[in-house]
């Protein structure tokens, strides 16, 4: 873990090197916002290439949660709906434990992602329909729900590997009153960076300073995000 106080110090030190930011008095709340904006940009850029870049995948391991049991909601003749975790960010893999009328033995059923929203076509297609014999079925994510094709399967449990959202960075202990509330009224929580690699922390602090003086909709910002992220994954 990289201490949030060090990130605030690093942000201020970097900001003082930028002409337009010299001597500007950033409040703790502002720095937290910039750091979180930078953190989200950094993680999102890494996720774009994590599937085929092992070094990037390794750098995100701190956010990876495996074999998480999901809560099953509605069940119909065709679909089983499982609730995504509250901290869900990106699907890595999922699978079900299920039996079938032909065989009562519970087996792991791997999930494959279906294209589009025509679930009936997959359920009725003999090549793609849910199969206890081949131990596979389709899924898609809609809103906060993982929709799994049921067919002949009696799905009893659903598990997922996923990248979780990083907890919101916060340094309210050093705010003017020793605390502050977020925009939704909830109190900010003291939270350091989960990444332990100083190089990753450096990139996030650099991005935070960049975000403090460049409009986030400016192409320059996105170009710098991609450039810094690629450097941090080497």
Task: List the main descriptive attributes of the protein structure presented here.
32% helix, 8-stranded mixed sheet, 234 residues, 2 domains, alpha+beta, 8 strands, 27% strand
Task: Give me the secondary-structure topology.
Elements: H1 4-15, H2 28-49, H3 54-59, E1 64-69, E2 71-75, E3 79-83, E4 88-100, E5 103-113, H4 119-124, E6 136-142, E7 145-149, E8 153-164, H5 198-213, H6 219-232
Parallel strand pairs: 5-6
Antiparallel strand pairs: 1-8, 2-3, 3-7, 4-5, 4-8, 6-7
Explain what this protein looks like in three dimensions.
Helix 2 crosses helix 6. The longest helix is centred in the N-terminal third of the chain and has 22 residues. The model has no long low-confidence stretch (mean pLDDT 89). The chain starts with a helix and ends with a helix. It is built from six helices and eight strands, in the order αααβββββαβββαα. 32% of the residues lie in helices and 27% in strands. Helix 4 links the parallel strand 5 and strand 6. It folds into two domains: 125 residues, no CATH class; 100 residues, no CATH class. With 234 residues, it is α+β, with helices and mostly antiparallel strands. An eight-stranded mixed β-sheet has the order 1-8-4-5-6-7-3-2.
Largest sheet: 8 strands, mixed
Query: Which structural class matches the secondary elements?
Result: alpha+beta
Order of helices and strands: HHHEEEEEHEEEHH
Cα gyration radius (Å): 22 Å
Q: How many distinct helices? A: 6
Number of strands: 8
**Largest beta sheet: what is the strand line-up?**
1-8-4-5-6-7-3-2
Count the domains: 2
Q: Cα distance, first to last residue?
A: 20 Å
């Amino acid at each position: 873990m990289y201490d949030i106080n060090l990130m605030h110090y690093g942000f201020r030190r970097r900001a003082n090197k930028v002409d337009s930011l010299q001597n500007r008095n950033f409040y703790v709340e502002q720095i937290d916002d910039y750091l979180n904006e930078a953190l989200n940009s950094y993680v999102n850029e890494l996720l774009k290439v994590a599937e085929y870049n092992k070094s990037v995948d390794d750098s995100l391991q701190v956010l990876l949660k495996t074999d998480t049991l999901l809560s099953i909601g509605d069940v119909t003749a065709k679909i089983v709906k499982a609730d995504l975790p509250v901290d869900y960010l990106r699907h890595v893999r999922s699978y079900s434990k299920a039996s079938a009328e032909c065989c009562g033995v519970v087996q792991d059923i791997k999930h494959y992602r279906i294209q589009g929203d025509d679930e009936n076509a997959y359920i009725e297609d003999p090549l793609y329909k849910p199969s206890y014999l081949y131990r596979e079925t389709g899924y898609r994510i809609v809103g906060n729900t993982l929709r799994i094709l049921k067919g002949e399967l009696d799905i009893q449990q659903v598990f997922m590997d996923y990248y979780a959202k990083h907890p919101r960075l916060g340094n309210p202990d050093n705010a003017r009153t020793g605390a502050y509330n977020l925009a939704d009224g909830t109190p900010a929580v003291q939270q350091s960076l989960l990444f332990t690699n100083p190089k990753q922390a450096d990139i996030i602090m650099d991005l935070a300073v960049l975000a403090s003086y460049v409009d986030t909709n400016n192409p320059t910002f996105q170009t710098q995000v991609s450039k810094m992220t690629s450097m941090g994954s080497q």
